[in-house]
Amino acid sequence: MDAQNFQPMKVLIVDDQSDNLKVLYNTLTTAGYDISLAKTGQQALDHITEYQPDLVLLDIILPDIDGFEICEKLKQDNSTTHIPVIFISARLDSKDVIRGFEAGGMDYIRKPFVEAEVLARVKHHLTLKTLQENLEHLVDIRTEALLKAKSVAEEANQEKSRFLSRMSHELRTPLNAILGFSQLQEQCISKSSGQMYSNQQYIKEAGYHLLKLVDDVLDINSIENNQLKIALQNINVDQAIHTSIGLVKEQAAQSGVKIHFEPSNLFIFTDKTRFAQVVIHL
Predict the structure, then answer these.
(1) What stretch of H or E contains 9?
(2) Furthest-apart CA atoms within the chain: distance in Å
(3) How far is Cα 134 from Cα 128, in angstroms, rounded to an integer?
(4) Which pLDDT does position 141 carry in this prediction?
(5) Are 249 and 259 in contact (CB under 8 A)?
(6) Which terminus of the chain has a smaller tally of CB atoms within 10 A, N or C?
(7) Taking a C-beta distance cutoff of 8 angstroms, is the pair 277, 244 a contact?
(8) Is the pTM of this model over 0.85?
(9) 3-state secondary structure of 201
(10) CA separation, residue 143 to residues 80, 95, 128 (Å)
(11) The 3-state secondary structure of 241-261, one letter per residue
(12) What number is the average pLDDT over the span 20-37?
C-alpha cells in the first residue's frame, strides 16, 4: 500500500515545539495525509472530539496535560478509543515506554526522529486501523445476514407448525370415521367368526395406532427439543409384538417375507406406542 490508499486519512500532530511541528507537518503532508496541529493537551482533546482524526502523533511533555493523560482520556471514551496513538518524545526510558503502553499507546518514535521511520510507523498503524475497520464492517454485515436468516428460519418453523397442525386435523377427520365404523363393525362380528373377527381387530388396532402417530405430529417441536413425552407402563411384550406384526403382515406377504415369532411371556416397563413403533420399523 502507498500513502494514497489512506487519503483523506487525518493525522493530528501534538507537540509544543514549533520546529517539530513544522518538520512533521511537511513530511506527512508531502506523503498525502491530511494534517492538523496542536501545541497543548487541551487543544489536542478539543480537536480530537470535534474532528476525529485517524491517528495521533503525541508528544509526552506538554505545557498543560502530559501525553500519557491525553492517551488515557482517549481510550476511556468509546468515541475515541479506536484512534491509534503514537508517542513522540526524547524521554523514552523503559518506565516511559511501559507507562505509554499501559495508557493505551500503540507505538513510540524517539526524538530526534527520522522522517522515513515516522512515515513507516504512521503507514503501518493506519493500515492496521483500516484492516480492523474493514473486518468489523464485514462482521456487522455477517451478523445482520445471520439475524435475517434466523428470522426466516423462525418464520419457516412457525409455518411448518401451522402446516402440521392443519395436516393433523385433516387426517384426524377420516380416521375418526374409520375408528367409528370399526367399532360398529366389532359389535356385529362375534369372536367365533374367526379370521373375520381377527381382521377387524387389526383394522381397529391400526386405526388407533395411526391416530396416536397423528397426535405425535403435533408434538414435533417437543421432539426437536428432545422433550418428547412418553407414557410408561407395564406391557406384555408378546401382545405388543403380535399386534405390530398384524399391522405389517399383509405387506410382508406381498413381498414374499415370512414373519416367525416365538412368544417370550415377558413384561417390560416402557411406552407402548414407542415400543410398537420400534417393532414395526424392524
Answers:
(1) none
(2) 118
(3) 10
(4) 93
(5) yes
(6) C
(7) no
(8) no
(9) helix
(10) 24, 42, 22
(11) HHHHHHHHHHHHHHCCCCCCC
(12) 94
